[in-house]
Every structure is written in structure tokens, then in C-alpha cells.
UniProtKB/TrEMBL annotation, chain A:
Keywords noted in UniProt: Cell projection, Cilium, Flagellum
InterPro entries: Acyl_CoA_acyltransferase, GNAT_dom
Lineage: Bacteria, Pseudomonadati, Pseudomonadota, Gammaproteobacteria, Alteromonadales
Residue span, N-acetyltransferase domain: 10-167
Name under which the protein is recorded: Flagellar modification protein
From TrEMBL, chain B:
Name of the molecule in the record: Acyl carrier protein
Phylogenetic classification of the source organism: Bacteria, Pseudomonadati, Pseudomonadota, Gammaproteobacteria, Alteromonadales
């Protein structure tokens, strides 16, 4: 399950003992931290403990996004129903682009397309569901472009629930997939 | 690099982004103008390809983040 995924002009490289420190640097950036469920700074000890927990986990996968040899962000998926990813039906995807120039860019769709294809087509996951800050209009718009449906959460104005089925994903992403699957010029 | 028809490129931007011609300047940039979002970007690619009879590569579709950059990219084809 822990293999490099390649497509849509990028590579998703599994997080390993050699590269996991980069995630802490990114995760502690003010602009990224502000959009997380937990906005606290992550200490080196906390980060090590987190990595020890996820390194061999069968319920979550974490990747670093590479574009043209540049590491630009991170994407992950976690099982939401307590089962291993190879058996689970419901999962949650998390993404951040750490390099500002690629945040508001078509390239930001590539990691989600690559991972979602793997989850829906290879792992046969039925639905992806997560929560996004209501104030994060860019993320809401981004996820809607991927086919996610938005549902307000009762008694919670801070977050909105978003959910995606394979059908909605397929319908919403045909055009962007075609554009990001063409020949590469450089 | 060949010289391109800037007016034709500007027309493609006006049509794809549904903006006024006066807004098409070198500073016009993806996601900085409220109408240039991912959906508009996909329409823009189609408009430019039809106008210039070209097919942009994926890296150029990604790099085309401003009107100034679009001029450079189209000139390569």
C-alpha cells in the first residue's frame, strides 16, 4: 500500500523516516496551522510520536506532493470507520499546499485527483467525508470543484461537513483530469 | 519565440472570464481576479486553443497564471 503514486503531472511520495520532519515545518507555518482543526504548534516530540504511530498504520497513509522535483505540500487519507484502508468504506482526506505559488493554481487539484482515483478505484472506498472551516471559502470552492457536497453541521458554525461519492467525483472532474493528463513540456 | 496576436489572446480572456477588455492587463492573475477560478481557467484553455489552433501541454496549463504568462506560453507554440 505504501508506494509512490504518479499521475496528473505530480508524484505522491509516502512519508518516511527520511522525510517526515518536513511535514512539521509546513504544519507549523502560520497560514497552514490557521486552517487546521487543531491550530496549536506541534513540538518535535509530538511530531516524532505522531510519526511512530502512523509509520506502519494500515488505517492511514500520508504523502508528500512532488512537482518538477519540488516538494510542495502534503496529502493524507485516514479510515473513518475503524477498518484498515484496504477494507474500509468511509475515509477522510486531508490536504495542504505549502508552496504559495501553487495554492491558487490548477496544480492544486492534482494530488486530490491522484489520491481519490486510488481510493475509489483501487481500494473501493465508497465515500470520503471530512470537515472544512466555514470561513475557508477557497477550500470549500476547491472541494466543490472535486464534486464534494456541503452539509452544514448542527450546532457548529465553525465547520461544514463535506462528502464525496465516486459518482459525484467522476462527474465533476472529467475536464480537469483531461487537462492535467496531457503531455508534459518541461 | 514568435510574436503573437495579443488582441486575439485578450479576446479569449474577455470571453472565458466574462470580464471587460479594460481588465485584461499583464497584471491580471489567476485567483486574484474573482472571475478567474479553476472553472474559468478550463474555459480559458479551450478558448485559447481554439483561437490559436494549438494544444497546450499540462505544464503550460499549470504555469498560465497571468495574462503576461499566457503571452509567453502561447508564443512558444
Amino acid at each position: 500500500m505504501r508506494k509512490v503514486l504518479t499521475g496528473y503531472a505530480i508524484e505522491l511520495i509516502p512519508v518516511t523516516r527520511e522525510n517526515f520532519q518536513l511535514l512539521r515545518e509546513w504544519r507549523n507555518q502560520d497560514d497552514i496551522r490557521a486552517q487546521m482543526g487543531d491550530t496549536a504548534l506541534i513540538s518535535a516530540e509530538q511530531h516524532q510520536a505522531w510519526f511512530d504511530k502512523i509509520e506502519h498504520s494500515q488505517q492511514q497513509l500520508h504523502y508528500i506532493i512532488q512537482y518538477k522535483q519540488q516538494l510542495i505540500g502534503s496529502i493524507n487519507v485516514r479510515s473513518s470507520d475503524g477498518l484498515n484502508l484496504t477494507e474500509c468504506k468511509l475515509a477522510e482526506v486531508g490536504l495542504y499546499i505549502a508552496t504559495p505559488e501553487y495554492r491558487n493554481n490548477m496544480l492544486a487539484f492534482a494530488p486530490s485527483l491522484l489520491l481519490n482515483d486510488y481510493l475509489f478505484e483501487q481500494l473501493q472506498i465508497i465515500e470520503l467525508k471530512s470537515k472544512v472551516r466555514s470561513s475557508n471559502s477557497a477550500a470549500l470552492k476547491y472541494n466543490q470543484a472535486l464534486g464534494y457536497q456541503l452539509t452544514p453541521i448542527a450546532d457548529d458554525n465553525e465547520f461544514i461537513e463535506i462528502s464525496l461519492t465516486a459518482d459525484n467525483y467522476k462527474k465533476a472532474t472529467q475536464m480537469v483530469k483531461r487537462l492535467l493528463s496531457r503531455n508534459r513540456s518541461n | 519565440m514568435t510574436e503573437i496576436n495579443t488582441d486575439k489572446l485578450a479576446e479569449a480572456f474577455v470571453s472565458a472570464l466574462a470580464i471587460d477588455a479594460a481588465e485584461v492587463t499583464d497584471e491580471l492573475a489567476y485567483s486574484q481576479h474573482p472571475k478567474w477560478d479553476s472553472t474559468a481557467h478550463m474555459v480559458l484553455v479551450a478558448e485559447i486553443e481554439a483561437a490559436f489552433d494549438i494544444m497546450l501541454d499540462t505544464d503550460d496549463i499549470i504555469d498560465m497564471s497571468s495574462f503576461a504568462k499566457a503571452k509567453e506560453i502561447v508564443a512558444k507554440y
